[in-house]
Specification:
By secondary structure, the chain is an all-alpha fold. It has 19 helices and no strands. The radius of gyration is 21 Å and the shape is globular. The model has no long low-confidence stretch (mean pLDDT 84).
Length: 405
C-alpha cells in the first residue's frame, strides 16, 4: 500500500511538472494563433484556394500553418472554406497543416522530444499533404466531392472585413477579439490537456516497460534497429493508442515522449502524434458535414497518408543518422520546478494571459466575437469534463501524498 501511495505522489508530481514545462509554450502558441485568427480573415483565404493545382495546395498549407492547432476549429474552418469555393484538395491541405504544422505544436514538441521530432513533425506534415494530394489525384473521387459540396448548407454569408492590417492592429475592438479568442483557445483544450498530462504522469509512474514491449513489438530501451514489418506494426498501433487516449495532439505530446523513452520506434511515435484526425470524434463530425461515404474516404485518405509519411520519415532520418536516442529518464527525473528560464517565461506569459483575459472579458467585454467550431458530442464533452474533474482530485491528493508519505 505504501508503494502505491508513493507512486501516486510521483505520478501527480510528474504530471504537474510536465505541465509547468509546457505552460509558457501553450500561452505563446495560443496568443500567436489568436492574433492570426483575428487579423487574417477566412474570406481572404477562401478567395485564393479555388483551383485544384499546386498553388491552391500551397496556399491551403500556408493558411493552415498560421491557423489554430485545435482539431475542432480546423474541421469547422476547412469545411467552411470548402463550402465557399475552395477545392477539396486545398481544404484537406489546410486541415492537415492546421493540425500538424502550427507553431504552438512545434514548441511543445521541442520541449518534450527535441529538435529532431520538430523537424519530423513539420516534414511529416508536408508529407501528409503530398500523400493525400497524390491519392486524391489517383482516385479522383469527383462525384463524391460534388455530393459533399451539395450536402453543405449554402445559405450562410461571409461578412468581409475590408480594413487594412494596420487599421486592425490599432483597433481596440480587435484586441478585445484577440483576448476572447485566446480564452476560447484555452476553453477548447483545457480538458484534453488536463487528461493528457495526468495520463502521462500515471504512465510514467505505474506502467511497466513490458506493457509497451507487448503493445509495440520488438521494443526496448536502446533499441534503434527495426525491420519493416515491425515499423509497420508501430505506425498502425500508434494511431490506435492515440484513439484510446481520446485527447488531442497538444495533450498527447508528453505521452509521445514517454513512448519514445520506452523504446517505441521514431516512426511509431510520429504516427502517434499525427493521429488526431483519424479518431472517432473527427470521423463523426466529417460524416455530419459531408456524409458517411465521404467521411470514411477522408479517414482512409488520412490514415494511409499517415502510415506512408511516418515510414518515409523514419527511413529518411535513419539514412542521415538523425534518429535521436530515447529520453524517458531525462524527462521524468529532471527537476521540473527549478528557478530557470522556464520559471521566468511562465511568469511572463501568466501576466500576458491575464492581460488578454482582461481585454476580452472585462475592459471591452461588449465587443462581439464568434468563431465557428465543429459540433462536439455533448455526451463525450460531458464525460471528458468529469474525467478532468477526477484528474484534478487525483493530482491534488497526489501532491499531498508526495510531501507527506
Amino acid at each position: 500500500m505504501n508503494q502505491f501511495l508513493n507512486e501516486w505522489g510521483e505520478a501527480a508530481y510528474t504530471s504537474l511538472g510536465f505541465f509547468w514545462m509546457a505552460l509558457w509554450a501553450f500561452a505563446l502558441g495560443y496568443l500567436i494563433s489568436s492574433m492570426i485568427q483575428v487579423f487574417v480573415t477566412e474570406k481572404r483565404m477562401q478567395n485564393m484556394m479555388g483551383d485544384k493545382g499546386g498553388k491552391s495546395v500551397l496556399l491551403g498549407t500556408f493558411f493552415g500553418f498560421i491557423s489554430s492547432s485545435c482539431s475542432f476549429s480546423a474541421l469547422a474552418t476547412s469545411k467552411s472554406l470548402f463550402k465557399k469555393g475552395a477545392s477539396f484538395v486545398s481544404s484537406i491541405a489546410f486541415l492537415l497543416a492546421s493540425t500538424n504544422l502550427v507553431i504552438e505544436l512545434g514548441i511543445i514538441i521541442s520541449i518534450f522530444l527535441g529538435w529532431q521530432f520538430v523537424v519530423g513533425e513539420y516534414l511529416g506534415g508536408v508529407l501528409l499533404i503530398l500523400c493525400s494530394w497524390f491519392l486524391i489525384r489517383i482516385i479522383n473521387p469527383k462525384k463524391m466531392i460534388e455530393n459533399a459540396r451539395k450536402r453543405l448548407d449554402e445559405s450562410s454569408e461571409d461578412h468581409a472585413d475590408k480594413k487594412s492590417l494596420s487599421e486592425k492592429i490599432k483597433s481596440h475592438e480587435n484586441w478585445a477579439k484577440v483576448g476572447k479568442q485566446y480564452g476560447m483557445e484555452w476553453k477548447m483544450v483545457w480538458k484534453d490537456v488536463t487528461v493528457g498530462f495526468t495520463i502521462a504522469g500515471i504512465v510514467a509512474a505505474f506502467v511497466p516497460d513490458s506493457f509497451f514491449q507487448t503493445l509495440f513489438i520488438n521494443t526496448g530501451q536502446g533499441q534503434q534497429s527495426f525491420g519493416f514489418f515491425t515499423l509497420l506494426e508501430h505506425v498502425i498501433v500508434g494511431p490506435v493508442a492515440a484513439f484510446l487516449t481520446f485527447i488531442g495532439s497538444m495533450g498527447n505530446i508528453p505521452l509521445a515522449a514517454l513512448l519514445y523513452g520506452k523504446g517505441v520506434s521514431f516512426a511509431g511515435v510520429m504516427a502517434f502524434i499525427f493521429s488526431d484526425l483519424v479518431v472517432f470524434p473527427v470521423l463523426r463530425i466529417n460524416a455530419k458535414y459531408y456524409g458517411w461515404k465521404m467521411s470514411l474516404f477522408i479517414l482512409f485518405l488520412l490514415f494511409t497518408s499517415l502510415i506512408a509519411a511516418s515510414l518515409i520519415l523514419h527511413y529518411g532520418f535513419d539514412i542521415f543518422n538523425l534518429i535521436p536516442q530515447g529520453k524517458d529518464k531525462s524527462i521524468t527525473d529532471q527537476q521540473h520546478f527549478a528557478i530557470d528560464y522556464t520559471f521566468f517565461l511562465n511568469l511572463a506569459f501568466v501576466v500576458l494571459s491575464g492581460l488578454m483575459v482582461y481585454f476580452g472579458f472585462f475592459k471591452w467585454k461588449s465587443v462581439k466575437h464568434h468563431k465557428e467550431m465543429a459540433p462536439k458530442s455533448p455526451l463525450m464533452e460531458k464525460t471528458l469534463k468529469w474525467i478532468a474533474m477526477v484528474c484534478y482530485v487525483w493530482l491534488a491528493v497526489g501532491i499531498v501524498l508526495k510531501f507527506t508519505v
